């Protein structure tokens, strides 16, 4: 709605008279939420003076709750958290986290980056904090500044990282810890190696059996370190490769995807100091597996 001011008055009084609004409180809220623009500038004070000839534009009032709902609806993937400093969404299985030499555009980072740029009219960009393997789904968080990225990466060892894993077989114990050294070979395959091996990195993985069936198990996995393919290699080393992970010894997948989901991240916000808990609910096929066991039919 566009209105022209006829005489000098306050913004509140002008709107009450020009619109015939019965509720002064609603008009105050409209102004306070930024729903009124005077000569191209948002005015949030009801007592703002306006003069004859000025253009007043009134936009539909959108509450913070409605705005948050709209943002979630516009997001390319499930929006788990967003504030001025960081954003988290749920990455689907099968999509690259970031660009590679072969694929530059069809990535999770690109989609989230475009969303943030459009939402901020190009004023904000995102920075990569961590990554997930292409076939892994779940929580990914991005920083909105270089400083926040560095803070998050510096505190990453203290970040609580939990996964859900569907594996072949059953671990030797209901819960346990795998600790060893990992190294990547020239074929980009990670393997367990002796301490002291050049370029080897120490890795720690904790697991707990949630459900066990004749041929498969559903595990909760928590990692202290974040090495490449760490969970996949450690579970395979237990004799329980992740379903669908033929690279590390799996025979197939009854769920038609890699059985690994980044379920949650918990950390201290680098700016506000509050405790942030980000949760990506288990995919439907994981929920079905947890309740009923593997789907019928041979693994692919």
What does this structure look like?
The chain has 300 residues and is of the alpha+beta class. The protein folds into 3 domains: 2-61, RNA-binding S4 domain (Structural Genomics Hypothetical 15.5 Kd Protein In mrcA-pckA Intergenic Region, Chain A, Roll), CATH 3.10.290.10; 62-154, Pseudouridine synthase (2-Layer Sandwich); 156-300, Pseudouridine synthase. Helix content is 22%, strand content 31%. It contains 7 helices and 17 strands. The strands form 3 sheets. Strands 7, 8, 9, 10, 11, 12, 13, 14, 15, 16 and 17 form an 11-stranded mixed beta sheet that branches. A 4-stranded antiparallel beta sheet has the order 1-6-3-4, with no helix packed on it. The longest helix has 12 residues, at 108-119. It starts with a strand and ends in an 8-residue tail after the last helix. The mean pLDDT is 91.
Please state the CA-atom Rg, rounded to the nearest Å: 26 Å
Mean pLDDT: 91
Strand residue content = 25-35%
Indicate the CATH topology of the largest domain: Pseudouridine synthase
CATH architecture of the largest domain: 2-Layer Sandwich
Report the structural category. alpha+beta
By oligomeric state, this entry counts as single chain
Tally the helices.
7
- Identify the CATH homologous superfamily of the largest domain: Pseudouridine synthase
Summarize the structure.
By secondary structure, the chain is of the alpha+beta class. The protein has 7 helices and 17 strands. The strands form 3 sheets. Strands 7, 8, 9, 10, 11, 12, 13, 14, 15, 16 and 17 form an 11-stranded mixed β-sheet that branches. It has a 4-stranded antiparallel β-sheet with strand order 1-6-3-4, with no helix packed on it. Strands 2-5 form a two-stranded antiparallel sheet.
């Amino acid at each position: 709605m566009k209105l022209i001011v006829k005489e000098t008055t306050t913004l509140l009084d002008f709107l009450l008279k020009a619109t015939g609004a019965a509720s002064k409180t609603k008009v105050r809220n409209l102004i306070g939420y930024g729903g009124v623009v005077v000569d191209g500038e948002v005015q949030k004070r009801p007592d703002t003076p306006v003069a004859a000839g000025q253009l007043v534009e009134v936009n539909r009032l959108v509450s913070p709750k409605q705005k948050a709902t709209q943002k979630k609806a516009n997001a390319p993937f499930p929006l788990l958290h967003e504030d001025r400093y960081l954003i988290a969404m749920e990455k689907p299985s099968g999509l690259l986290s970031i660009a590679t030499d072969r694929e530059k555009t069809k990535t999770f980072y690109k989609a989230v980056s475009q969303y943030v740029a459009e939402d901020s009219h190009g004023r904000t960009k995102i920075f990569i904090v961590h990554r997930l393997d292409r076939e892994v789904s779940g929580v990914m968080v991005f920083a909105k500044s270089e400083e926040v990225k560095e803070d998050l990466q510096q505190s990453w060892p203290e970040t609580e990282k939990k996964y859900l894993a569907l594996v072949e077989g059953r671990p030797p114990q209901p819960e346990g810890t795998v600790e060893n050294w990992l190294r990547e070979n020239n074929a980009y395959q990670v393997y367990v190696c002796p301490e002291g091996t050049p370029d080897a990195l120490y890795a720690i993985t904790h697991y707990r059996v949630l459900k066990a069936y004749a041929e498969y198990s559903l595990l909760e996995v928590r990692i202290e370190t974040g090495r490449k393919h760490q969970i996949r290699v450690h579970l395979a080393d237990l004799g329980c490769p992740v379903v669908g992970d033929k690279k590390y010894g799996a025979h197939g997948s009854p769920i038609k995807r890699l059985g690994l989901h980044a379920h949650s991240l918990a950390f201290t916000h680098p700016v506000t100091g509050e405790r942030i808990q980000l949760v990506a609910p288990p995919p439907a096929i994981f929920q079905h597996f947890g309740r009923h066991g593997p789907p019928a039919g041979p693994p692919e």
